[in-house]
Amino acid sequence: MTQEIRLFGAIAVRPAVLALICRFETDTGFTVALKWELNPVVVKKQIEAGEPFDLVITNPNLVEDLTALGKVKAGSEVAFGRIAMGVAAKAGGRPLDIGSVEAFKHALKSARSIAYASEGSSGGYFSGLLERLGIADEVMPKLVAISGGQTAPAVGRGEAELGVVPVTSILAAAPEVMLVGRFPAELQSYIDFAIGISADSTDAEAARQLSEFLTSIAVDDILAAKGVERC
């Protein structure tokens, strides 16, 4: 009987992880069952409520909380990587400069509509950023709230001119969507992710192998191509 490893994670890392899982399954003979939630906090809450898992990928502070609660095995936490915020546009559109803070502000103010993740942590950061930049009054009326992790695809469908979302989601929506660019360095907000092994894993050794595979140097190039930067 093939051993099944239950991986539970935040949806922002899904495109990168999916690019790796087949290779892991082929190399080991294990099967990986995947479950995703848009908001990392929901991942934590479901695990607290008894959701079974062998490996979790979510924000480091949430992995630490789950460790303190006895849900994640102490000492198993390892860094997975970080994801930058980016701007998406429909493929084939005009070039857009967002390389500086002023250029970024101009692009947002000039856009007819901007999609953002209404349920995710990235959406909350973006809303706060508009206030900080002093352009909330001009830009907020043009925002299009998108749920279910569909912000980048919504841009591809023409539901908004631009989209603001983690880079992984933009790259995964190609070829219909293109990455205009990452936020300027002064405005960037990286979303960090870590891996933890369940304290109640049905096969801790298999979970450990998957954790080591996902954090190995051998997969760095694949992760980088999908938008995950190693810290």
Automatic annotation (TrEMBL):
The source's domain of life comes to: Bacteria
Q: Which residues form the signal peptide?
A: none
Instruction: Read off the InterPro entries from this record.
Output: ModA/WtpA
The record's annotation in Pfam families points to:
SBP_bac_11
What is this protein called in UniProt? Answer: ABC transporter substrate-binding protein
